[in-house]
Amino acid sequence: MSDIPPDISHDQYAVRLKKLQDMRAAGSDPFRANAVQTHFSGEALKAYVDGADYSVPVKVAGRLVVIRDMGKSQFVKILDQQGQIQLYVKKDLVGDDAYAAFKKLDLGDIIGAEGALFKSKSGEVTVRVDKYVLVSKALRPLPEKWHGLTDAEQVYRQRYLDLIVNEESRKRLMLRSRIVASIRQTLATRKFIEVETPVLEGVAGGAAARPFVTHHNALGVDFYLRIALELRLKRLLVGGYDRVFEIGRIFRNEGVSRKHNPEFTMLEVYQAYSDFRGMMELLKGIFTDICRDVIGATEIKHAGSGQLINFAGEWREVRYFDLIDEAVGFKLSALRTAADYKAKATEAAQKLGLEIHPAWETHEIVNEIFGKKIEPTLIQPTFVTHLPKELSPLAKLNAEDPALIDVFECIIGGMEVAPAYSEQNDPFVQREMFEKQVGEEQQKMDTDFLLALEHGMPPAGGMGVGIDRLCILLTGAESIRDVILFPSLRPSDAKG
Length: 496
What we know:
Structural class: alpha+beta
C-alpha cells in the first residue's frame, strides 16, 4: 500500500481525464516543459503604477484557485510562491478558440499568462490577459473550498495540498525559510564559516539520545545517524576554524510529541576565544535581526499563554538552583553534598505531584522538577545558568563550584530554545566525564575526539538552537509538525 488516500472523487477524475484525452487528440500538450515568468504575484502587484492602467506588461504563472465566469469574460486567480493575483480573461482579447478552451479549465490547473496590469472596478490590481497557456493539467480536484483538509493527518501526509488551500500554513512555512536565511546572514556578518559534517557516524556522540542504526553494505559495518553536530564542529576548532556553524538535520530514535520529531533541524555554532556569555550576546543578536528583518516587530504574542513576549527588553538571567529552591519552597541546593540529598529531592518532587522513578539519580530527580514545574512557566526570554555537571559532560566546570557547569539554557515561551556552554577543552577532564557517561560501554566513547583535544582546542563558547522550536515560537504554531514541511509519520499501512 502507499500513502495516497483512496480516491473519493471518481466522477471528477473521469471528467478531467476525458478533457486531457481530448486535448491530446487535438494535438495540444497539457504538460508543457516550460512557461516564461517575469514576475511572481507579489512582484506584479508592486509593479503596478497607480493611474497608469495597461502600461506595465507582466508574465505570470500559477495554479488556478478561483474561477468566476462572467459569460464572455472570466475573473480568475492563480496562486504562486508569493500568493495570489487576479487575471482578467476576455473573449475579445484572447480569441474565440482560446477562450472556449479556457472555459474548460478546472480549479487546480496550472497556467501561464501574459498581459498588462490594471486596477479593476473593485480596486484590485489585475492582469488583463492577452495570451495564456495551460502548462500542467490537474487530474485530481483540490480540497473543497470551505472545508479544506478536515483530516489533520492528511494535512501532514499531503502537505502539498495543505500549502495550496491553507494560506496560514503556507505563510508559516515560508516564514521558516526566511528565519533560517536571517540566521545565516547574522552569522556571516560576524565572520562565522558554514560547514557540513557527516550524517553517518561510527559513534553516536555529542548528546545523550538513542540513535538510529543503519548498515553500510560496502564497508560491512553499522553506522549511526548523528544525534548531534557538536563533536565534529569542535574538531574544526582544533583545526583552526575559529568561528564555525552548521544548520543540519539531527536524528533521534525517541518519542514524538508537540515539541519532538525523530528528525529535526539544529543550528550549532562555536566561537573560539569566547564562552557561554559570548553565546548570550550572539543569541540576542540572532533574535534582534530576525525581529527586524523577518518578523517586523520586537514583540510577539505567545500562543499558549497569550502573553506578549518582548525580545527587545532585558533578558532575565537566573541560576538553575535558585529556581529549584523557589519551586520546592526551601533551600534544596544547600543539601547538594548531604547524605540525604536524594531523599529530600524525591520528597520535594513528590509534594509537587511528580512521579519519581526509584532508579533515577538525584540530578535526574531535580531536573524533573525543573522540566515539569519551572520550564513551562518561563515565558519571557530567560537564561537559566549554572546547571549540575551531570547534565552535560561537554561543558566547562565552574571555577567556583566544580559541581556546576558554565552553561545556560535559554527558555522562551515555556520551552528550551537554545542551550549553550563554555566548552570543555581539557582532554583529561573530558575523558573522565565521558567515562562517567558511558560507564562500561566504552565503545560508545568518541576516542578520536579525545585525541583531537590532546592536540589543543582553544577556549570556546558553543550553542545549539533548535530551528523547529524557534519556528514554533515565532510563528505561533501549535506543534512541531506545523513548522516541518514533511514531519515523520507512521506509514498508513503500518500496524499497531
